Amino acid sequence: MWNPHATISKIPLGAGSVLVVDDVLARPEDWVQFAVANRHAFKAAGYNAFPGLELGLPSALTGHFLDFLRAPIREAFQVRRVVRAHSKLAMVTTPEALLKPLQTIPHVDNLSAGEDHSVIAAVLYLFRESRLGGTNFYRPCIQAPALAKLVNDAESMPAEDFHRRHGVPVRYPGDSDARFERSLSVTSAWNRLIVYPGNVHHSGAIARPELLHDDPLQGRLTVNLFITCRRAMRG
């Protein structure tokens, strides 16, 4: 499954980092063909911040990713052991005009981890068209109460009221604004896996939404992985 010649690099991100693993899979084309064969099974996310279609992956495949990632994430993110994990194939497909408020601001993947746990997220790019975009990371420019209010309103208010109140454009997050500073943009590349702390605000870098497609052969196909880990003891 894994390419023995894969290369791992580290990009600083605030007090932490993003791991970038290039040429990670030995046969990435097989994953694309799996997505094509199961295209009918992709479903609209609906329950989270992801703006598109998803297909949950079996726990055995998630386990293969964990086997590869355990050592790198322990070293990079100071975690002790994996508590649980899940993965999915995903395609961003939502036109900007149909985005929900929560999808127009950067988000985090905390997944109710708790104080003793961390969530590590990973994205594997399975598309060659670089204009479909990589991943942006952000630093909030507003204080915690204002940030909590922004997120709560995005989750609870009608879209028109939210955008009028907060002045957030109806589009995918992009450049820095008064609420978030874009601190890092990682470009996509065929068969590239990025791994990052889930508590850092981020978003897909969707600068060309007109290129989005629901065909795995043409769309922004990724594997998304979420790993809840127990934090390493300090001191």
The order of strands across the largest sheet is 1-2-9-6-11-5-4-3
Number of strand segments: 11
Largest pleated sheet: 8 strands, antiparallel
User: What are the segments in which pLDDT stays under 50 over at least 5 consecutive residues?
Assistant: none
Cα-based radius of gyration, to the nearest Å: 17 Å
Q: Can you count the helices?
A: 4
User: How helical, in percent, are the residues?
Assistant: 10-25%
Report what the structure shows.
With 235 residues, this protein is α+β, with helices and mostly antiparallel strands. 21% of the residues lie in helices and 34% in strands. It contains 4 helices and 11 strands; from the N terminus they run ββαββαβββααββββ. It has helices spanning 28-37, 59-77, 144-156, 159-166, and strands at residues 7-13, 16-22, 43-44, 52-56, 79-92, 117-125, 135-140, 180-186, 192-197, 201-204, 220-231. The strands form 2 sheets. It has an 8-stranded antiparallel beta sheet with strand order 1-2-9-6-11-5-4-3, with helices on one face. Strand 3 and strand 4 form a beta hairpin.
Summarize this entry quickly.
The protein is of the alpha+beta class and 235 residues long. It is built from four helices and eleven strands; from the N terminus they run E-E-H-E-E-H-E-E-E-H-H-E-E-E-E. The protein has helices at 28-37, 59-77, 144-156, 159-166, and strands at residues 7-13, 16-22, 43-44, 52-56, 79-92, 117-125, 135-140, 180-186, 192-197, 201-204, 220-231.
